[in-house]
Amino acid sequence: MENNKLETISNLFENKEIRSVWDSEKEEYYFSVVDVIGALTESRDSKDYWYRLKTRMTEEEKSELSTKCRQLKLKSKDGKFYNTDALDTKGILRLIESVPSPKAEPFKLWLANLGSERIDEVFDPEIAVNRAVEYYRNKGYTDEWIKARLNGIVDRFKLTDVWKEGGITKPMEYAMLTNEIYKGWSGMKANEYKKLKGLRKESLRDNMTDIEVALTNIGEIATRDIAIEECPQGLKENLNVAKRGGGVAKGAKDLYEKETKKSAISKSNSLNYKYIDQRKEIEDKEGENNGK
Q1: Which residues of the chain have pLDDT under 50?
Q2: Cα-Cα-Cα-Cα dihedral of 218, 27, 162, 186, to 10°?
């Protein structure tokens, strides 16, 4: 895990520091409970407030939060790391709903509006599509890139439909098959590719170049078409097909690199921020001090 000051979350809490930890295996952030409580309340002792809040919770609320709560080592003001209660994003939002504070009301209203928007999208799915296009445009993506991205999403659904027919049902199995395609042409699993680009929870494909998106699509389309032809059943047979589909994309990658004299794989991303591994910084400083 990596400790990190996540600016997006801090901004939501009027720039008050909310310590966070990134779990690279689960691809999930965990946030300090006492920091969130401190930002939402006037309490001088956030730990005591958290204790008293738990005593007032219903058994259902207490059970829900306790199953999500984790003890993680977070950096304190004295520079040392201490075990601290932490919750993932969903848990933190659930916690905010339980805090009887005027400062929590804007968050509760935001959650209510968000829920209302999602219900509207059920009745009119075009709202969700328009929101996605607007989001990408605001991020500076070209209309050509957006069109390719949306087509890739549709092609992905076609592939997962074929996998379902082949007996694939578990999320872990879908992840394994996707990794096999990525490895087939890039030599990396999805999480390794994201690490190369300096990503965490962000979408890998949203941070790909045009050629990377194209090669990803080729790998998935080839996997889908081979599967339609051969009708593989079970994880083992589908992994073999996914590997071959990734190999088709690798052929295209090798030809592209031969003709252009440049790598098809890029470290670049579309982020306007950079993550800092505080643990690494501390280790580096300790090493410098020991070397003096």
Answers
A1: 4-8, 10, 279-286, 288-289, 292
A2: 30
